[in-house]
Write a structure and sequence with these properties.
Blueprint lengths: L1 H5 L10 E5 L2 H14 L7 E4 L10 H7 L3 H32 L3 H4 L2 H25 L1 H15 L3 E5 L4 H12 L4 E4 L2
Antiparallel strand pairs: 1-3, 1-4, 2-3
Length: about 180
């Protein structure tokens, strides 16, 4: 599954997992447990204090949740390119099905019909690529972590690189946390 995701996303860590804790001790204990019970390295785990969520746009919070700025640009390019190609293929397939079924509107203008279907396929593919590049699943995690920090809680954010690490992070952070949130 992660191989398919790599066609769309340029980050090494596609999924974000965050555990929310009532105290610093709880967050520190969770980090020790997570590093001891999983294959995640210390560089893949960040601890955020309530101080990190004091302003609406805090650089510490942004860096902890989205540390791969170059990966974000690769995601934007990959998502758009992959979805444009898939949109082109869908448009051409739709055109072929309609021509094959004997649609009279396409029989007389076959070249123009092909261009229109291919063009609309690419356009809709680019729109969907833009939606993927926005990463609404990451936005949800960032919002919930920011809100928890602003209410005085602590957060542990993990950046797993594969499905196994994701499961390990969720399982480990679930123990003792107030809530665990993750992206897709």
């Amino acid at each position: 599954m992660f191989k398919l995701k790599q066609a769309f996303f340029g980050e090494r860590s596609i999924t974000k997992v965050a555990g929310l804790f009532a105290s610093r001790n709880g967050a520190d204990d969770a980090v020790l447990a997570l590093l001891g019970a999983s294959s995640l390295s210390a560089s893949q785990v960040k601890v955020l204090s309530p101080k990190d969520g004091e302003t609406a746009r805090d650089a510490a919070l942004d860096q902890a949740v989205e540390p791969e700025q170059r990966g974000i640009w690769r995601t934007i390019i990959r998502a758009h390119a992959t979805m444009a190609v898939l949109g082109l293929l869908a448009g051409v397939l739709a055109y072929a099905v309609l021509v094959g079924s004997g649609n009279p509107a396409l029989q007389g203008t076959s070249g123009l019909g092909w261009v229109v279907f291919a063009g609309f396929g690419i356009m809709f593919g680019l729109i969907l690529g833009g939606l993927l590049a926005l990463r609404p699943d990451h936005g949800r995690v960032i919002h919930l972590v920011r809100r928890a920090l602003q209410s005085g809680k602590w957060a542990v954010v993990a950046h797993p690189r594969d499905a196994s690490q994701t499961h390990q992070a969720v399982a480990s952070l679930s123990s003792g946390s107030l809530r665990v949130v993750r992206s897709f």
